[in-house]
Design a protein that fits this description.
The protein is about 25% helix and about 35% strand. The longest helix has 23 residues. It is elongated, with a radius of gyration of 13 Å. The chain has one domain. The protein is α+β, with helices and mostly antiparallel strands.
Amino acid sequence: MLLQRVSIGEEAANAEYTGQVFTPSEVFGFEVKLALDGSAKLLALPGDSPDKVDEEHEKSLLKLSKSIARAAKRKLEDKLPPWPPKILRWRGPGRG
C-alpha cells in the first residue's frame, strides 16, 4: 500500500492523498481523504472498478489511513508536521 500526499487543508485540519494497493497481478488506485478527527474516506479512482478491488485490501488501506489520521492529531499537538508526504506499507498474506 502506498499513500502520497496531494494537499493539506487550512490549519492542517485535513489532507488528501492518492492511494494505491498493489497485488501480485494488479494495482488499484484511490483518492484518500483524511481528517484530524481520525476519519478517512476512500474513493476508487476512475478506471478501477470497485467490484474488482478485493474487500480485504480495501479494508487494509482504510485501516492504515485511519491510523495515519489519528496520529496526525498527536503530531500536531507535539508541534510536528502532521501529514507525512509519503507512506509505504507492505503486508503479505496473513500479516494483517
